[in-house]
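WHEP-TRS domain-containing protein
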Amino acid sequence: MAASTVAHATFGAGMDLGRRRGSMVVSMAKKKGKGSKGTGGKSGKKAKQKTVGQSAEKVRYLSSDVIMTTLQLVESYKRETGRTLMDGEMEITDAPRALYEAPFVCLAHDGGEDPVFTYANEAALKLWEVEWDDLVGMPSRKSAEESVDVQEDRSSALKEALEKGCIENYSGVRISGLGKRFEIKDATLWTIRPGEGESVGQAAVFSDWRFVDCADEEDLFTPEKLRQWRGKKEETSAEVPPPANIEDLRKQVDEQGDRIRAMKESGLSNQDEEVQQEVSVLLRLKQELADLQEKISNVS
């Protein structure tokens, strides 16, 4: 998504993305002590997901909770700003990956009294110099310095966005996990309201920032480096996959579908967490298969 199209937003300005059935991604963070890093919950379930050869990063944005978070972000952004968060038409199943790998920063936090982060895309994690499990579940006030002026500015932006639905052209200084200070520019902060319901949180997106008091730009994740980094990832993804990879994925899709059908025949339903986990794996496998097929068609 071009920087001119995306409504820029600020993470520390106060992102709120609670869920009606608890808190979306935060629920994953609370479980992380039971297994290795990732979004799963229980280590056994994460182990299932990793048997299909996926990294924790890929599993993360295709977990059922993050998928629902992504859809709320996309829908509420359109409702509050009148614009689309990402360029072009896309299927619902494409949105989680598109937002996670987008060429802009997007974050969210829940609606508690001391809000905690519930979502961060790949660019946000790089800018804040943290891993998913370090950020998700962390009080969002910690994304900014503790000074009274900074925290009051952040709180004021949150309040205004809650009253108006969204605010734009926000600027504010934030601090990375390694202590680097940077100023967010031209940010948009919006409130998340499912349908006509009450606010369940806020989110933010932006694509412009500058580091403060950091002399060595070589080590900084600048907006220009974000564009270069995204471009390299796109070039890498354009490589033609071997036919064996296609056949292997088709087999995995079929086997995963059979696994889900067997679970439902045993009495489980789509409301059961076990089924939701397996459906998330199936969605990811189908997306990977579609991606590989598209690469082949692009060079044929």
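thats it. The first helix runs from residue 26 to 31. The chain has two domains: 18-237, 243-299. bye
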